[in-house]
Amino acid sequence: MDNLSRLRAAMEQSSVPALLVTTIQNVRWLSGFTGSSAVCLVTPGTAVLVTDSRYTLQARAEVQGLEVVVFQNPRSLDDVIEEQAAAAGASKIGFESSLTYGQWKKRRDRISAVEWVESPDLIRDLRMVKTADEVKRIKAACQLADACIENITRLIQVGRTEHEIGLDIEFFYRRHGAGIAFDPIVASGPNSAKPHAHPGERRIARGDFVTIDCGGRLDGYCSDITRTFVAGEASDRHREIYDLVLKAEVECCALLQPGAQGKEVDGHARKLFAEKGLDHHFGHGLGHGLGIDVHDPGGLSPTVDQPIAEGMVFTVEPGIYIEGFGGVRIEDDVLVTAAGPEILTHAPKELLIL
Ligand code: GLY
Ligand code: MN
């Protein structure tokens, strides 16, 4: 079933008579449009994508299954939404909760003939389960992430700065026709105890943990991979922490079976860390959905009750972060299939001393 049909089925089930899709990632998911500004109005019998004249040719080339309506000055987006709502006979329209209060108030006042109602996050839920085409694109992005890690292991050297290595990562993705899914994390020594460290001018030193967390955005879909290395030589403490995170990562990946609960999988990593008295060094969730956004809908954390289903793609990224010493995170991207988890990132995970 295509995404428009999936959305219409969800709208019917949730009694949403018409939906105005304004989140640009949801517009992309629904229509294939990759520009930065457009909305979609969907009713049981009509589906239009509205964009402005900067995107006329692009929308015509990319959009599938929806009518394309383009406006230009002096007409506004709301002029067209009002016109399209009237043409479709839509007097009650759901809006997405990501709309800001200001945007909603402006639209409500401007298009007052429509009753605007907050819609449940239908597309958010649908986006969790990927189509075959989306899986293909995520796999290609993951392949590039593996290649990036392979390349970067040759460029991590004592004396180079985090910033230089961050540039190498960014250059690699762009040289291979991708964007970066997020600003790469390159965290060395004590900085590796900060899960989201920003690469700085610190030079890599012997005995550092070096955590690399990066991903590419290829053909609109993201990858997200983390590997932690040791520079120069590894101590027993490095190995002990690394081996524990690796064990948690491998075992949690294996638990991504249809029907499991996100919080159970997350809880397994916490249990392993607690057995060594290290659970308080793992503050963030185990993983998140992956797709159009690097943090796509869905997650693995202590608060997620939602059952895991076939077609979902998650990151699995346990970490232990010790202030003053350093941290380890290992992250893979995993597709849930009926036959079990399929790991999409394949960069080696045994401890590499660089
Ligand atoms: N890779 C960065 C994150 O998942 O937050
Ligand atoms: Mn991640």
Question: Which tags fit this structure?
Answer:
single chain, 354 residues, alpha+beta, three-stranded antiparallel beta sheet, 35% helix, binds glycine, binds manganese (II) ion
What is the topology, as strand order, of the major beta sheet?
Answer: 4-3-2-1-5-6
DSSP strand count: 19
Report the β-strand fraction as a percent range: 15-25%
Small molecules (ligands, ions, cofactors) in the structure: glycine, manganese (II) ion
- Global morphology: elongated
Tally of separate helices: 10
- How would you sum up the major sheet? 6 strands, mixed
Mean pLDDT score? 97
Q: Measure the end-to-end span.
A: 48 Å
Query: Which structural class do the helices and strands define?
Result: alpha+beta
**Percent range of helical residues:** 25-40%
Radius of gyration: 23 Å
Low-pLDDT residue intervals, each spanning 5 or more residues: none
H/E series: HEHEEHEHEHEHHHEEEEEEHHEEEEEEE
Write the layout of secondary structure elements.
Elements: H1 3-13, E1 19-21, H2 24-31, E2 38-42, E3 47-52, H3 56-62, E4 67-71, H4 77-88, E5 92-95, H5 101-110, E6 115-118, H6 122-128, H7 132-153, H8 162-175, E7 179-180, E8 185-188, E9 209-214, E10 216-218, E11 221-222, E12 225-230, H9 236-254, H10 262-275, E13 287-289, E14 296-300, E15 313-316, E16 319-322, E17 326-329, E18 332-337, E19 340-343
Parallel strand pairs: 1-5, 3-4, 5-6
Antiparallel strand pairs: 1-2, 2-3, 7-10, 8-9, 9-12, 10-11, 13-14, 15-18, 16-17, 18-19
Helix pairs in contact: 7-8, 9-10
